[in-house]
Amino acid sequence: MNTQKLKKIINHVFIKHGLSNKHAKISSNYIIKAELVGAPSHGLARLKMYCNRIKKKLINCKPKIKIKKISQSISHIDANNAIGFVGADTGIKIAISNAKKTGFGMVGVKNSGHYGLSSFYAEQAVKKNLMVWCFTNAPPAIAPYGSTKALFGTNPVCFGAPTGNKIPFILDASASIINRGKIRRAEKLGQKIPAGVALDKNGKPTTNAKKALEGVQLPIAEFKGSGLAWMVDIVSGVLTGANHGGKVKDPFDDLTGPQNVGHLFIVIKPGIFVGKNYLTQIKKNLKAVKRLPRSNMIKKILYPGENKYAKYKKNIKKSIEIPDNILQEMNKLNAI
Fold first, then answer.
1. Which of 54, 70, 102, 145 could cross-link 226 (Cys pair, CB 3.0–4.6 Å)?
2. pLDDT of residue 234
3. Is residue 285 part of a domain?
4. CB burial class (10 A; 0-12, 13-18, 19+) of residue 22?
5. Residue 59, burial from CB neighbour count under 10 angstroms (0-12, 13-18, 19+)
């Protein structure tokens, strides 16, 4: 389906469910972009979930977002259970504004929801020639190292830096081997998941997506991945006043209340220590890596962000393919 047409459809669905024109536009933009950068796990596959939570009044369509200015550089936001895209979009924009004024901006957000891909918020900062870190916690999926019970979310760590060219450096990596959205989408479409990424509820390896959702996901690098997930839970939850320690509600399966997801955005001027020399040095840094001898397995050494940019440039010229299961969900939402 044509990208612009699909964006209008999603926008219409959100408005029909009660979001304001502004919030519907923000949300539909993020969902479509997820499809375009090759991350359908965070795109149309989640539309029904967001609508279900709006219907149950677990997402506030008319949030009264409170912004507390702690200093010229630091702000704290209560998103009032707004859809996560809006809570996070508000947060990153204030962090950027603060950093532009003082060189440093930090914003904590509580009472938000699932906000899609962290890279979308990092991208906003690097486009303003700023360096950025984005953190958000998520529902239980990973068992702390040494435990058999899921407690931490897949809790992504995201970092972005301007490179002096049109493609910024953006690393967006979950603490799990694959993100939970991929397993959700596989379950929805009746597909298997890769071996070695999840265990069933009995602790046995599984490639069955449904059994994986009932069990636990495996962290990257064993205890190191578990530690990263824990760190993100602390900075996104404990620090901001949001839920943490396994209390973030699953947006698909737990309709007992709002998620109260937490986000933390840290934005700085990259020349804060080295001035105009930053761009010279970052270009040297990238060239040093790209000039290394290549493995026979790859054609070109890429830095984080290049692959997604290439997919976006390719996909923006094509129609978005919608799997039948997701098309049926959209039909039931009277989307098309």
1. 145
2. 98
3. no
4. exposed
5. buried
126 falls within a domain: yes
Looking at residue 312, its amino acid is Y
| H or E segment to which residue 102 belongs | helix 84-102
Summarised one tens digit per residue, pLDDT across range 172-200 is 999 999 999 999 999 999 999 999 999 99
- Number of separate domains in the chain: 1
> What's the rounded Cα separation, in Å, for the pair 96 and 190?
41
Q: Is residue 291 part of a domain?
A: no
Closest CA to 250 of 109, 98, 89, 140: 140
| Token reading at 261 | 């997801």
**pLDDT tens by residue, 96-147:** 999 999 999 999 999 999 999 999 999 999 999 999 999 999 999 999 999 9
- Pick from 326, 323, 313, 327: nearest CA to 37: 313
**Does 231 map to a domain?**
yes
Is a pLDDT exceeding 90 seen at residue 335? Answer: no
